Amino acid sequence: NAGVTQTPKFQVLKTGQSMTLQCAQDMNHNSMYWYRQDPGMGLRLIYYSASEGTTDKGEVPNGYNVSRLNKREFSLRLESAAPSQTSVYFCASSQEEGQPQHFGDGTRLSIL
Amino acid sequence: AQSVTQPDIHITVSEGASLELRCNYSYGATPYLFWYVQSPGQGLQLLLKYFSGDTLVQGIKGFEAEFKRSQSSFNLRKPSVHWSDAAEYFCAVVAGNYGQNFVFGPGTRLSVLP
């Protein structure tokens, strides 16, 4: 049982570069989420998808875009990376909307 | 808007001692409340959740939490801590059933002395 799988695990970017963080879940969950974690701030919601074909902004969406490619996959894109986006990014999923239950192991992103 | 505070940034306990991690929330109605644990280098794992009913909730790994409406609190407890419990613990609250209304507290880091 893989659960929630995130790729890559680590990434270093230069300011202005773009990249896509991938997330896939194998639990047939409807809802998926992207969070960022910064020291002392807990997790903050970037975007979420209540079901396939829908996405909504969270608390900190600026500088990010998402795609719910199908029920399994939910990707997060940084179009022009900025140092302020240096963080650890977590993808999560759940069957119940609005209650993240299963988390991936995170992507550690550094932007120079 | 709802909010969550965890007054203790870092707590250290001896192995075998009891543990209580504090969580306070701000919300007009009864919210849904959650506790998660995050081991170093890993994602979060759901320990337990409270929706309604019995105010004492049992979770995994021997943890329990008690909802106290009068104190707007949802404290996490464990009677005897094991070294493997060293981790970061997050309290969370959701108002309604929408992802954007799910708010995490800042976390409490637990260290366990042998």
Folded structure, characterized:
The complex is a heterodimer of chains A (112) and B (114). By secondary structure, chain A is mainly β. Chain A has strands spanning 4-7, 10-13, 19-25, 31-37, 43-49, 56-57, 64-68, 74-78, 87-94, 102-103, 107-111. In chain A, strand 9 and strand 10 form a beta hairpin. The radius of gyration of chain B is 14 Å and the shape is globular. Chain B contains no helices and twelve strands. Classes of the chains: A mainly beta (112), B mainly beta (114). Chains A and B meet through strand 5, strand 6 and strand 10 of A and strand 6 of B.
C-alpha termini separation of chain A: 36 Å
The level of helicity of chain B is under 10%
Rg measurement of chain B, Å: 14 Å
Instruction: Tell me the β content of chain A.
Output: over 45%
**Please, what is the average pLDDT of chain A?**
93
Main pleated sheet of chain A: 7 strands, mixed
Outline:
Chain A is mainly β and 112 residues long.
